[in-house]
């Protein structure tokens, strides 16, 4: 009995000591409660920004809206367009509609603060930045919907790069957001607009030499103007790019090939048969790197040999002027008439002919002989 009391007392003492010790631990300034730091939530990556013309954006959505969503939905779009309409919508927001130059879809741009668009008006060209939510249908209309839109300064979004290859005459322009003009000045100072470029056109290629050929004789005069030309790309009369190139005359060209064809024809009034030239093909090339500006040979006169009696006269009735591009061949095709006979001998045969090729040059009033070429035309026997 006595032993049981001793054991019970010891147990009570142990319990009391444990309780007191736990209290002391809670009150001790050295013991601090450990707290796990909160794991920060990962930051959302910024939305990709894509600069694209409204023409190209509409075109891609019209061709394949699913593929266009893969590329452009939930992206920040920067574009330039002309305001077609301005509307106030709910919650103090505003909407600008842009009708693209090409395509049936419209761009709807929602501004959270309608005061932001108070400076603009219909018909004005603006730059806009907004989050693309893809296509929304409102009745019969399909809209490319941009949310959280803001106006941007046009000058900050514009891009321009130009490069001119004097060997080919190709002018390449990469641009965004500008209305441009490509101008050409002759050595005598005459000016002509080669091409007008609108803000929604991104990649442009212009063959300046071919354009130059088309300007004669209606713009720059009757004869080609040789010398240094000035090429200019400008926006609102401000020059963005300038290049110069020189031209030379037809005497620098090389005559590569002559091909003459013909056919038999009946002359009702004379009741006889004659073989006439119907087509003459001349092929020129330019071995130089300077473009050759030339007038198409005005006439080819064909003679028998050695008497040199005129038996055919061919005249070119097409465009009067051409450009022979550097290191490139150009073919001139002259159309004749079978009514001007080379021979009335039904047996046919080989005929030796002389082609006199004439051209005109600056400050020369008369035709000058460019090249005299002896050739042979094979006339087949006449078969009625």
Could you explain the architecture of this structure?
The protein is mainly β. It has three domains: 49-156, Nucleic acid-binding proteins (OB fold (Dihydrolipoamide Acetyltransferase, E2P)); 159-247, Immunoglobulin-like, CATH 2.60.40.1930; 250-379, Immunoglobulin-like (Sandwich). The protein contains five helices and 23 strands. The protein has helices spanning 2-27, 54-63, 65-72, 154-157, 208-215, and strands at 49-51, 76-88, 94-98, 106-111, 125-138, 141-152, 159-165, 170-176, 180-185, 191-197, 203-207, 227-235, 238-247, 254-267, 272-285, 292-295, 299-304, 310-315, 321-324, 329-335, 341-343, 349-359, 368-379. The strands form six sheets. A five-stranded mixed beta barrel has the order 2-3-4-6-5. A hairpin with a 5-residue loop joins strand 2 and strand 3 (94-98). Helix 2 crosses helix 3 (65-72). The radius of gyration is 42 Å and the shape is elongated. The protein starts with a helix and ends in a 5-residue tail after the last strand. Mean pLDDT is 81; it is low at 28-34.
What is the topology?
Blueprint: H1 2-27, E1 49-51, H2 54-63, H3 65-72, E2 76-88, E3 94-98, E4 106-111, E5 125-138, E6 141-152, H4 154-157, E7 159-165, E8 170-176, E9 180-185, E10 191-197, E11 203-207, H5 208-215, E12 227-235, E13 238-247, E14 254-267, E15 272-285, E16 292-295, E17 299-304, E18 310-315, E19 321-324, E20 329-335, E21 341-343, E22 349-359, E23 368-379
Helix pairs in contact: 2-3
């Amino acid at each position: 009995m006595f032993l049981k009391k001793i054991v019970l007392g010891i147990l009570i003492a142990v319990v009391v000591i444990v309780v007191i010790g736990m209290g002391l631990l809670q009150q001790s300034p050295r013991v601090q409660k450990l707290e796990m730091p909160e794991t920060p939530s990962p930051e959302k990556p910024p939305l990709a920004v894509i600069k694209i013309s409204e023409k190209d954006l509409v075109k891609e959505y019209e061709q394949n809206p699913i593929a266009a969503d893969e590329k452009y939905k939930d992206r920040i779009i920067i574009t330039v367009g002309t305001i077609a309409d301005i509307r106030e919508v709910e919650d103090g927001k505003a909407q600008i509609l842009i009708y693209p130059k090409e395509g049936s879809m419209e761009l709807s741009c929602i501004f959270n603060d309608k005061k932001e668009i108070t400076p603009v008006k219909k018909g004005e060209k603006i730059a806009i930045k907004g989050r693309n939510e893809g296509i929304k249908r409102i009745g019969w209309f399909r809209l490319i919907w941009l949310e959280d839109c803001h106006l941007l300064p046009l000058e900050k979004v514009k891009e321009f790069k130009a490069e001119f290859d004097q060997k080919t005459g190709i002018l390449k322009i990469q641009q965004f957001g500008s209305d441009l003009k490509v101008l050409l000045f002759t050595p005598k100072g005459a000016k002509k607009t080669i091409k007008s470029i609108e803000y929604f056109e991104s990649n442009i290629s212009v063959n300046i030499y071919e354009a130059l050929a088309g300007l004669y004789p209606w713009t720059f005069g009757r004869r080609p103007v040789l010398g240094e030309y000035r090429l200019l790309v400008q926006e609102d009369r401000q020059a963005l790019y300038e290049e110069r190139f020189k031209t030379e005359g037809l005497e620098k060209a090389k005559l590569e090939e002559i091909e003459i064809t013909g056919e038999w024809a009946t002359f009702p009034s004379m009741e006889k048969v004659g073989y006439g030239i119907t087509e003459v093909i001349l092929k020129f090339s330019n071995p130089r790197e300077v473009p050759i500006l030339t007038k198409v040979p005005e006439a080819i006169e064909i003679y028998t040999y050695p008497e040199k009696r005129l038996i055919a006269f061919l005249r070119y009735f097409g465009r009067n002027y051409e450009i022979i591009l550097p290191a490139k061949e150009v073919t001139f095709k002259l159309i004749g008439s079978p009514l001007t006979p080379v021979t009335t001998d039904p047996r046919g045969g080989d005929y030796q002919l002389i082609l006199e090729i004439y051209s005109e040059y600056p400050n020369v009033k008369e035709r000058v002989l460019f090249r005299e070429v002896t050739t042979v035309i094979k006339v087949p026997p006449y078969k009625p």
